[in-house]
Amino acid sequence: MRFVLIFGLVLSLTPVFSACDDDDTEHNGSVCGNGIIEEGEVCDGTQLDSATCNDLLPNTGGTVLCNDTCQFDTTDCVACSCGDGIRCGDEECDTESFGEETCETRGDFTGGELSCSADCTIETSSCVPDCEVLSIGNDCDTGGGSTECCPILQPSGQWDSVVCRDPEESGTGRCQPLPVDDTCGWGLTVDSSSGDICDFVLCGEGNGSTPANSPCDLGERSGWCQPSGAAMEQSGTCIESGTREHGETCIYVIPWDLTGVRGVDPDSQCLNGGCASSTGDGTGVCISYCDPTASLQGNDSCPQDWNCANWSWLEMGDLNESVPQYFRGADNGFCMPQGPGMSEVFVNGGVMCDVLTGLTTKGGAQCPDGEACFVESNSHTMGMCSPLDATPLTQGESCVRPGSSEPEPCGAGLYCTLQDPFNDPDISAPALACMVPCDASVYDSNTACLGMETSETVPRPYVCLTTSRFYTPDHELPTYCDGQDCITETAPSTLGFCVPPAN
Q1: Residues in Cβ contact with 460 at an 8 Å cutoff, skipping those fewer than 6 apart
Q2: What is the DSSP letter of 231?
Q3: Which of 8, 218, 457, 470 gets the highest tally of CB atoms within 10 A of its CB?
Q4: Cα separation of 353 and 309, whole Å?
């Protein structure tokens, strides 16, 4: 009986022991297929522990799977091929595939679109830099940090740093690039006097340098002194020249967009001229610059059948950053064809002339039949030969300024402008009449105004009033004041008109 009890005790204990052993195996071992990566497993179901084809098989892409033994299945992994549209292996991108990369993740950019190069590396040329000041040479805040000045995108896809410097400690900095291997990009030279930075070369007689509208030097490179700002400043910037001659094809780029760019091919840009395009992109044609003042003096440098035109103006709008209101802008000359169909850039062209003599600036001839020399801009005496009206108005007759396709209403040697700028009660909507142009450098007793006088009991002779004084409140030369500092125009328009004197 005692033996039976002991045996019974052993039998009764055995199932209990067996049950405890099974429970321990279920929780401490690995169960493949439960979606949990456990001991001895490298994956489980869709859980791959972030493994990729490239991790398992270098320079491959595709989809990693997990087999029924919880091991990686690389059957769907394929060798990477740049251009197949699948970003894999060492590729940063492939066609339109960039992974999770964006302009923002690639550097100091606020937006834009990435592009993928032929060798499957990411390009950021279309990204928008995170910066405050876009153009080189513009004012900046020296405390603005690394994103104050916008970097320069180089052809390699790299961005060159531009820093805000104030070497003269004036309180206002300027955005200037740093040299790379002691060299600067297009249009700039190393300025060692300002701390080895890249800067423009200023020119013009106001800077004690090469006159405006003439060739200039950028160290061992050549350029053209292009005037800027107000005429009275006699200041300009030496714009780097290429080698393409007038009329030859060129790569169209807005000149300022080339500034600071390294590796520009001089044979893609124009010699003492600009690349003009009718479409604004792609290729263009070289148009030479010229000196409009020399052209008026009979020294026109433009090629045959082309003549020098003057792009200058009186600042009639609100105050801007470069030219105060009513001040005259600098004379800028460029060659223009003398007739239609000579250039894809200029639809019509035109024959330039001197409004004081009525003769063409190139050749000193009369305007073509049916045309006369009329004022082209109120800032200078260079005009353009334009069609006469069938029944032109005479001197002093009231007139209305014509539309762009209408002939001038006044006869030869006249122009429709303010009739009495000194005494008109409403200069904002003045009376217009056909008036005689004159050389504004001679106010009294101007030969063009001889015989003209007021209709008063005691007649008074007309005076030659520069157009620079037509719209100023007191009809004196324009003056601009910034606090206690005032400047007065010293290079007013050379164009004047014979008008009644002030009452």
Answers
A1: 453, 454, 500, 501
A2: G
A3: 470
A4: 9
In this structure, what is the dihedral angle of CA atoms 33, 35, 40, 42, given to the nearest 10 degrees? 110
How far the first Cα of the chain sits from its last, in Å, is 151
Burial class of residue 141 (count of CB atoms within 10 Å of its CB; 0-12, 13-18, 19+): middle
Residue 334 Cα distances to 221, 297, 309, 318, 467, angstroms: 22, 16, 6, 27, 23
d(CA 385, CA 7): 133
Token pair of 172 as six digits: 């206002």
Backbone angles phi, psi at 150, to 5 degrees: -70, 135
Residues 286 and 245 sit within 8 Å (Cβ to Cβ): yes
Question: Tokens 């004690």 appear where?
Answer: 208
- Considering Cα of 461, then 467, then 469, then 472, what sign does the dihedral take? positive
pLDDT 10s per residue in the chain (503 long)?
A: 333 333 332 333 333 333 334 443 343 578 999 999 999 999 999 999 999 998 999 888 889 999 999 999 999 998 889 998 888 888 999 999 998 999 999 888 888 899 999 999 998 888 888 888 878 888 999 988 888 998 888 887 778 889 998 877 888 899 999 888 888 999 999 887 766 889 999 999 999 999 999 999 998 899 999 999 999 999 999 999 999 999 999 999 877 788 999 989 999 999 999 999 888 778 899 999 999 999 999 999 999 999 999 999 998 875 555 678 899 999 999 999 999 888 888 888 999 999 999 999 999 999 999 999 999 999 999 999 999 999 999 999 999 999 878 899 999 999 999 999 999 988 888 999 999 999 999 999 999 999 999 999 999 999 999 999 999 989 999 999 988 899 999 999 999 999 999 98
CA 68/CA 45 separation, integer angstroms: 8
CA 381 vs CA 276, 313, 387, 447: distances in Å: 26, 11, 18, 16
- Is the distance from CB of 229 to CB of 323 less than 8 angstroms? yes
Distance separating alpha carbons of residues 150 and 11, to the nearest angstrom? 88
User: Is the distance from CB of 176 to CB of 238 less than 8 angstroms?
Assistant: no
